[in-house]
Design a protein that fits this description.
It is a single chain. With 377 residues, this protein is α/β, with parallel strands linked by helices. It has a single domain (15-292), classed as Alpha-Beta Barrel (TIM Barrel). Helices cover 47% and strands 12% of the residues. Helix 1 (6-12) packs across helix 15 (294-303) and helix 16 runs antiparallel to helix 17. It binds zinc ion. Zinc ion (ZN) is lined by residues 19, 21, 171, 199, 223, 285.
């Protein structure tokens, strides 16, 4: 049996990414190409200032939200969205990603919902043929805009239904816009069979935002949700219920909280969430903007946060369980992906060593919601 490195293993085992902002996956050269196409004055250095990878060169990064806002202005034709989606699929394929549920914000584009949706659907069909990757769509509310606009977004979805559109989300700056303000849009979506997710308690905001998402809005999963660990009773309850939390190792807020690597490694809430037995799914958020990818995302889980390799299998299975794929297909993929994971793992030439005091063995039963067993190392 031929051997592979640990990094080859990380980039090859099958993955699902459930928290992926489509325009966070725009490559630098693509942003520059769009600027050229529309005669928009954008120097290479200005473009780089949206990308964390060039922080040392540009002196700052504007962050994911600024990048998304800029790109929605810049991309003026539906075919631009098709291009981005195909490139996202190509990049994800290189990291072993087989399935993505991706957010985009209909209220931020000047194009019609239907035009963009159709372009994305064309991209999805090509992605499956070219890269064997399945992508599904989550129109997402820009919470910096009004709750009424959010209702309009759902109404547009109802006027132009498509089987690739699975649910709705909410993102952008949460400080003055907790999810319950948008209850009408969520209720309308839920009543019409859409799944629900929401960015809650990002940026260190209070755990009550997670509670509002789960108890009032009745979301099917939470994006981020880190502050829930400040409430041990609720954390235990949500762990028992198996409520999925998509978590992002490259989250900007926590990088700025603890710029010292060693402190960040220990204090990041992902470790505490795992130890509490929550159903967590590592995701990438803003792929190119945050200088990450799915391989790196899982690498961080091992090398920085101390999870053993068996934990990665449980995260992989959590991602399938929390996805909005049809039940029958999920069951089939659980079996296929487990086999692939185990075969690849057996080929690793040398597994990384994790210091015992830092090690976490995350063992969450992937099928039953109520069988959770975690070694609280
Ligand atoms: Zn996000």
């Amino acid at each position: 049996m031929s051997k592979i490195s640990f990094y080859q293993f990380l980039s090859q085992f099958p993955k699902a990414d459930l928290h992926y902002h489509l325009l966070g996956g725009v490559r630098l050269e693509t942003m520059l190409a769009f600027a050229k196409k529309y005669d928009y004055p954008l120097s290479e250095l200005e473009a780089k200032s949206y990308y964390r990878a060039y922080k040392a060169e540009t002196g700052s990064t504007k962050g994911g939200i600024a990048a998304l806002t800029f790109l929605y202005e810049l991309m003026q034709e539906a075919e631009d969205y098709e291009r981005v989606l195909l490139e996202v699929a190509e990049d994800a394929h290189a990291c072993g990603v087989r399935y993505i549920e991706t957010f985009w914000n209909p209220s931020d584009t000047h194009l019609s919902y239907d035009d963009v949706n159709q372009a994305l659907v064309r991209g999805i069909e090509k992605s499956l043929l070219q890269f064997n990757i399945t992508i599904r769509l989550i129109p997402s509310i820009n919470r910096e805009k009004s709750p009424e606009l959010a209702v309009e977004m759902v109404e547009m979805m109802l006027q132009h239904p498509h089987p690739y559109v699975l649910g709705i989300g909410i993102d952008y700056k949460e400080h003055n816009a907790s999810v319950e303000l948008f209850w009408q849009a969520y209720r309308l979506a839920q009543d019409n069979g859409y799944k629900l997710t929401a960015h809650c308690s990002e940026f260190g905001l209070h755990w009550r935002n997670v509670v509002a998402g789960i108890e009032l809005v009745e979301v099917d999963r939470i994006d981020h949700g880190y502050s829930i660990i400040d409430n041990p009773k609720l954390t235990a309850q949500y762990a028992e219920q198996g409520i999925p939390f998509t978590v992002v190792p490259s989250n900007t807020y926590f990088l700025s909280q603890w710029p010292e690597h060693a402190e960040w490694q220990v204090k990041h809430p992902i470790r505490a969430m795992a130890k509490a037995g929550l159903n967590i799914i590592p995701c990438t958020d803003d792929w190119h903007m945050h200088a990450t990818d799915s391989t790196n995302c899982y690498r961080v889980m091992v090398e920085d946060f101390g999870f053993d390799i068996e934990s990665l299998k449980h995260f992989m299975l959590n991602s399938l369980g929390a996805s909005w794929l049809p039940k029958k297909l999920k069951k089939q993929l659980v079996s296929q992906w487990t086999t692939e994971f185990d075969l690849l793992r057996a080929q690793i030439d040398q597994e990384p060593e994790i210091a015992p005091q830092h090690l976490i063995e995350y063992r969450r039963h992937p099928v039953s919601k109520h069988k959770i067993y975690v070694n609280k190392a």
